[in-house]
């Protein structure tokens, strides 16, 4: 099929490259010509393992443009993959969604063929029916489900393993109003040979939020019990290994540490809280998840202060990305940890294999080391992201506070404190 993908961030780049790998012709629509040039040259605009290979391999089926109207006119399907960042009150900022909906609607008005629009961006239940469809219908003078197709298709991939997750997802969720659109998307995803769950637009939108809220809750539960384990001298990793063997519970996303970050969990849980409140529901569990997650990084600095006063000392931080194998620093736990260290009067020396350029833009006044081993010269080392290469360092003689349980640091450090073990 001929497919347009709007947005060349994490989700747009992966969706387009993977659909190209499935044999489709892709038009990437972006605003940043530098990113579009990279895609055309077979280079990923984000750090994501395997993406360069797919873009290079399928280059002959990949086009790029800044002209959204033309892209809609020339394709049969359009995936909306623009950002839905948090608004000031925690709810979703839908300005990017509204803007592209207006332009798509105008293009649909002059497009004689049947076109289907698929929302992959994470949007709250009701957004497609209450915001996107009215804009599309007003601009195109066509009816959803009659003049054009509309679907919800939330994305569940994880940054760092996004390409593999796309092809081996646990399930594809499709929200539709009509059978024709359901069949079109079911046929599109059938070659993946994974379970396909087809439902209504609103239910599909809610499945995405409920999934992320559940995973954030599961991690937070592991952290709360982990904090307790640490006080009792129990290894929380062993506890959750034992608990996770119960098939009703499952071991994944069940490790304690310094809390969740990234572009999705904090934003989506907060958006769900705001939406629940405006619907008259008191989201007690979700409120507690956010509050507990905010407290978790404070434990690292508290543990450090048990051994050393950070004032006028150099404290090393290993890892800035919110998790390994990505350059994404959105809501990374490194941010609150570093802010607390600076407030304590420390000099902070940091290293991350791929996320330093992005971090420098928001925290220019840190010492950015040229290598991980340079960070080990500091008076103490805090491990924030579990990059593989941090397991190759020699921690002997060091004071280490570990938020991610690195095997080698645990074995070798002269003084070692794990946050929950
Ligand atoms: P992102 O900020 O990395 O990318 C969004 C892109 O959309 C940017 O490149 C931006 O320039 C582009 N854009 C905005 N308006 C545009 C326009 N009018 N025309 C062309 N391009 C436009 O965001 P992301 O991480 O890729 O997330 C996108 C959506 O997917 C969000 O709703 C997010 O919640 C959801 N999501 C993200 C992940 C993830 O792991 N990053 C996982 C699942 C779902």
Description:
There is one protein chain. The chain has 421 residues and is an alpha/beta fold. It is built from 16 helices and 14 strands. The strands form two sheets. The chain has an eight-stranded mixed β-sheet with strand order 3-2-1-4-5-6-7-8, with helices on both faces. Strands 11-10-9-12-13-14 form a six-stranded parallel β-sheet. It is globular. The mean pLDDT is 97. The structure holds nicotinamide-adenine-dinucleotide. Nicotinamide-adenine-dinucleotide (NAD) binds next to helix 1 and helix 5. The site of nicotinamide-adenine-dinucleotide (NAD) has 26 residues, from helix 1 and helix 5.
Quick rundown:
This protein has helices spanning 10-21, 33-40, 51-57, 68-74, 95-110, 127-140, 162-167, 179-189, 201-232, 236-244, 265-278, 284-307, 334-343, 356-362, 372-375, 407-412, and strands at 2-6, 25-29, 62-65, 77-80, 115-119, 148-152, 172-176, 196-200, 314-318, 347-351, 367-368, 380-383, 399-402, 415-418. The radius of gyration is 23 Å and the shape is globular. Helix 1 (10-21) links the parallel strand 1 (2-6) and strand 2 (25-29).
Lay out the secondary structure.
Layout (H helix, E strand, L loop, with lengths): L1 E5 L3 H12 L3 E5 L3 H8 L10 H7 L4 E4 L2 H7 L2 E4 L14 H16 L4 E5 L7 H14 L7 E5 L9 H6 L4 E5 L2 H11 L6 E5 H32 L3 H9 L20 H14 L5 H24 L6 E5 L15 H10 L3 E5 L4 H7 L4 E2 L3 H4 L4 E4 L15 E4 L4 H6 L2 E4 L3
Helix pairs in contact: 1-3, 4-5, 5-6, 9-11, 9-12, 12-13
């Amino acid at each position: 099929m001929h497919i347009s993908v709007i947005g060349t961030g994490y989700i747009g780049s992966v969706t387009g490259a993977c659909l190209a790998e499935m044999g489709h012709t892709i038009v990437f629509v972006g605003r940043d010509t530098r990113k579009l040039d990279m895609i055309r040259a077979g280079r990923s605009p984000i750090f994501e393992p395997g993406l360069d290979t797919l873009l290079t391999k399928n280059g002959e089926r990949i086009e790029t443009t800044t002209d959204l109207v033309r892209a809609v006119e020339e394709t049969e399907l359009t995936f909306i993959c623009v950002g839905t960042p948090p608004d000031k009150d925690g709810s979703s900022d839908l300005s990017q969604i509204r803007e592209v909906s207006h332009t798509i609607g105008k293009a649909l008005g002059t497009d004689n063929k049947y076109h289907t629009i698929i929302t992959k961006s994470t949007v709250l239940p009701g957004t497609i029916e209450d915001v996107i469809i009215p804009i599309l219908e007003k601009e195109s003078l066509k009816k959803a489900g009659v003049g054009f197709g509309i679907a919800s298709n939330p994305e569940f991939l994880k940054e760092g393993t996004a390409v593999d997750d796309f092809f081996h997802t646990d399930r594809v969720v499709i929200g539709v109003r009509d059978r024709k659109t359901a069949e079109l998307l079911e046929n599109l995803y059938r070659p993946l040979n994974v379970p396909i769950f087809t439902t209504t637009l609103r239910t599909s939108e809610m499945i995405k939020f409920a999934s992320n809220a559940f995973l954030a809750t599961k991690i937070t539960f592991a952290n709360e019990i982990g904090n307790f384990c640490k006080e009792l001298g129990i290894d929380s990793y062993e506890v959750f290994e034992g608990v996770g063997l119960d098939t009703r519970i499952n071991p994944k996303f069940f490790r304690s540490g310094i809390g969740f970050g990234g572009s999705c969990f904090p934003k989506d849980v907060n958006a769900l809280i705001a939406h629940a409140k405006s619907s008259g529901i008191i989201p007690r569990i979700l409120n507690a998840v956010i509050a507990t997650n905010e407290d978790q990084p404070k434990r690292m600095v508290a543990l450090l202060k048990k051994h050393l006063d950070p004032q006028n000392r150099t404290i090393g931080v290993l890892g800035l990305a919110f998790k390994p194998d990505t350059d994404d620093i959105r809501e990374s736990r490194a941010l609150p940890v570093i802010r607390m260290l600076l407030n304590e009067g420390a000099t902070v020396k940091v290293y991350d294999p791929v996320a330093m350029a992005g971090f420098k833009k928001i925290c220019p006044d840190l010492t950015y080391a040229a290598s991980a081993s340079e960070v080990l010269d500091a008076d103490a080392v805090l491990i924030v992201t579990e990059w593989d290469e941090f397991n190759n360092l020699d921690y002997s003689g060091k004071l280490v506070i570990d938020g991610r349980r690195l095997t080698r640091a645990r074995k070798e450090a002269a003084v070692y404190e794990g946050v929950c073990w």
